[in-house]
Amino acid sequence: MSEIEIGCCGACCKTCRELKNKNCRGCKLGYEDGERDIDRAKCKIKLCCFRDRKYETCADCPEWESCDIVQEWYSKGYQRGKCRESIEFIRKEGYGEFIKRADRWKNHYGKLD
Fold first, then answer.
1. Where are the domains of the chain?
2. Which top-rank group of organisms is this from (predicted)?
3. pLDDT tens digits for range 9-61
């Protein structure tokens, strides 16, 4: 797994069932080689984080805790809350440690301990 397989919001694309089943193309996959056009993306989080600010994920943003876009998204359900936990983990422990743990997940989120 690499950082490009971590969604801006903290979802782990590499282990996501939707990506594996080809129901989703992933958050950042395909933009680096021009296969996809970032200006056509509809996700506000992706546009803010990846296109406008050039961050890998929201974990890199100093305004993350006060960002209305991502915090509102996190407030809508258990799975989104788990994505928030992923971003919090990355902010504290770094991408390398997150990737070690997330690589064994069966979905786009999982246990971090």
1. 3-102
2. Archaea
3. 999 987 877 777 887 788 888 888 889 999 999 999 999 999 999 999 999 99
Count CB-CB contacts under 10 A for residue 68: 9
Block residue for tokens 């998204």: 73
Does the pTM of the predicted model rise above 0.85? Answer: yes
d(CA 74, CA 2): 23
The neighbouring-strand residues paired with 6 are 12
DSSP assignment of the chain equals --GGGB-TTS-BGGG-HHHHTTS---SSTTTTTTSS-GGG---HHHIIIIIIS--SSGGG-TTGGG-HHHHHHHTS-HHHHHHHHHHHHHHHH-HHHHHHHHTT-SSS-----
Identify the CA nearest to 106 among candidates 18, 29, 28, 5. 18
Average pLDDT, the chain: 91
